[in-house]
Amino acid sequence: MRHVIFGGDGFVGRHLAPKLLADGEDVVVADIVRSDLPHYRAARFVTCDVTDPASVAAVGLKPDDMVYNLSAKMLSPIQVRARRHDFFFPVNFHGTEHIIQTMDRTGARKLVHYTTDMIYGHTMVSPMTEDHPVAPLGEYGLSKLRTEELAVEWRRRGMSIALFRPRLIIGPGRLGILEKLFKLIDGNLPVPMIGSGRNPYQFISVFDCAEAARAAWRAGVPNEAYNLGSLNPPPVRKLLGDLIRHAGSKSILLPTPGWVVKRTLDLLDLMNMPIMDPEQYLIADEECVLDVSKAERQLGWAPQYRDEDMLIAAYSEYRAGKDGRAVASRHVAAE
Asked: Phi, psi at residue 54, to the nearest 5°?
């Protein structure tokens, strides 16, 4: 069996590929760019743009291939309203469509596909199980929801498609929205919170994400959706307070009236001057915690990393980069 990872040079793929190679598997990475990664000594790389059906077809899928779709446009960099649909949909939806259509033509039947917890929208019930109502708050979440609808259709036609809905992924190689937080802490500046900070904030480690994909393959690629998140996420106030103490910063946490901040950010968004995506700030003071017990029951998967450790390790990695020191931590950054 070959394992073909679309978007495999990206955040999760660069950790999944070595895991599969360590299992003795044959791995093909299909991506638009090729980084200088040591596992390419053993894995084959194919240049692929998922927005182009001919490029996807040129990967040369075979009937027995195990396929993973990790290609995606994320919420960073922030886009103005008018550009969001055309930014997210070509890769997130149409790219997925091209992969599935190519699988159908070549006889490949097994797919692990990553979507997002942002398909849920506002929290209706906490913790959120996979049966939580879906009502995405923007084009990113909507583009991912449309791929889940594709999956339902193609499952009826005989494909096995396992879906993963991760929380904010944290791990080596990407800072994303955390860079703004770290800069405030380094500058001993106040750190504003949307709301009181009493609500929990949940991450998921990129290592745990990669292991979930591997677990789905080993479990036979169930036709199910699975939440991915940490266990027992702490309140935002504790999470950030611990980080500030670790950094030796004089920053203070600044609670704000959530509704005032959201309306202000809404106005900036309407004026085409967004500083956060609505899909991020509209739920920032809600109890957005995913129940991940289904993946444990059905796949034997459980998260191994705590939010507190991940965030502190991310800051340590950030500081090492700023100081020109070697990276000492396993965890960095976020999408």
From this structure: -65, -35
Q: Who's near 4: CB < 8 A, 6+ residues apart?
A: 28, 30, 59, 61, 65, 66, 67, 68
Provide the token pair at 255: 């609670």
pLDDT of residue 238: 95
Distances (CA, A) of 242 to 60, 184, 236, 253: 49, 15, 10, 11
- Predicted TM-score of the model (pTM): 0.93
| Ranges in the chain, pLDDT < 70 | 172-174, 325-335
Instruction: Express each pLDDT in 291-322 by its tens digit.
Output: 999 999 999 999 999 999 989 988 988 888 88
User: Which helix (H) or strand (E) is 239 found in, with range?
Assistant: helix 236-247
| Rounded Cα distance, 6 and 169, in Å | 18
Q: For residue 171, give every residue at least 6 positions away whose Cβ sits within 8 Å of its Cβ, in sequence order, or none.
A: 11, 15, 205, 206, 207, 209, 310, 331, 332, 333, 334
DSSP letter string, 98-141: HHHHHHHHHT--EEEEE--GGGS-S-SSSSB-TTS----SSHHH
Inter-residue contact 167 to 230 (CB < 8 Å): yes
pLDDT score of 332: 38
Contact 204, 303 (CB under 8 A): yes
Of 259, 247, 200, 206, nearest to 228 by C-alpha is 206
**DSSP single-letter state for residue 325:** P
Residue 246's Cβ-side half-sphere holds a number of Cα atoms within 13 Å equal to 17
The reported pLDDT for the residue numbered 153 is 97
- State both tokens at 160: 């096995």
Q: If you count them, how many residues does the chain have? A: 335
